[in-house]
Amino acid sequence: MTVAARRRAAATPLLTATGRCQVMGIVNVTPDSFSDGGACLEADRAIEHGLRLAADGADLVDVGGESTRPGARRVPVEVELGRVLPVVRGLAAAGVVVSIDTMRARVAEAAAAAGATVVNDVSGGLADPAMARCVAHLGTPYVVMHWRAHSERMHAHARYGDVVADVVAELALRLDRLTAAGVNLDRIVVDPGIGFAKTAAQSWHLLRRLEELAALGRPILVGASRKSLLAEVVTSGTGGTPSERDAATAAVSAIVAMRGASCVRVHDVAASAVAVRTAAAMAPTSRDRQGEPG
């Protein structure tokens, strides 16, 4: 089996709702991401970081060249391409399963040519009308996040009746429109968009009621890592720095894994890799259900 074939095979568990929850490590090739902006802006450092995440237990590594933190402004496509392509190539050449975190079809296509085998689009195809055709052609797993607006103005859109019901309905509409445009439903993963056009309280509601997203019939990815909603459970009193939220992130990883998430997207891979494996060990087996000793 070629390296490319192994990477495609390794990406397949993202598309199943059974088995151990996958861990997606984050490589931000940006100067302004909320948690680690500037830490991996140089390609060599970003590749080194991605390899370290893989060694820590990441099933795949998500490479992004455009910050989507609250208030972030978009960067030109040429800047995004220049940031991510050397990193995608380096990690893919080393045998790492690479996801490209982008809202642009041009970047997704170029990253796939460089070795990425998953497209993670926080806009769910809304930011670029060409994205649906692009991923339909690529045939890669496609992560579709719930999204209402770009980062500069997303908080103005955090208005819901029932946030869980509204997110499910809006994601269902995205699935319909994406499949109508040629995207294979069986290749789609959904993401409720924790923190995107949502208050902390609304994000907690989504996490508490994650099982309701199962109505969409697609695997679920959760990205809560280091986000501000976790500040209220950090014992420092102020919520600390983003990296001080890693313990809370790992706790969320374990909980959502037990509630059916297929993947968690995290900065601290080592802790969440243990968390999802612990959740898998805690899951009832067929023997448990039959009352037999495990």
Protein architecture, described:
With 294 residues, the chain is α/β, with parallel strands linked by helices. The chain contains 10 helices and 8 strands. An 8-stranded parallel beta sheet has the order 6-5-4-3-2-1-8-7. Strand 5, helix 6 and strand 6 form a beta-alpha-beta unit. The longest helix is centred in the middle third of the chain and has 18 residues. The model has no long low-confidence stretch (mean pLDDT 88).
Radius of gyration (CA) equals 18 Å
In CATH, the homologous superfamily goes by the name Dihydropteroate synthase-like
CATH class: Alpha Beta
CATH architecture classification name: Alpha-Beta Barrel
Domain unit count: 1
Number of helices: 10
> How much is the average pLDDT?
88
- Computed structural class: alpha/beta
H-E string:
HEHEHEHEHEHEHEHEHH
Instruction: Report the β-strand fraction as a percent range.
Output: 5-15%
Helix fraction by DSSP (H/I, runs of at least 4): 25-40%
Fill in the CATH topology.
TIM Barrel
**Tertiary shape:** globular
Blueprint (SSEs and pairs):
Layout: H1 3-11, E1 22-28, H2 43-55, E2 60-64, H3 77-93, E3 98-101, H4 105-114, E4 118-121, H5 131-138, E5 142-145, H6 163-180, E6 188-191, H7 200-208, E7 221-222, H8 246-258, E8 263-266, H9 269-282, H10 286-289
Parallel strand pairs: 1-2, 1-8, 2-3, 3-4, 4-5, 5-6, 7-8
Helix pairs in contact: 2-3, 3-4, 4-5, 8-9
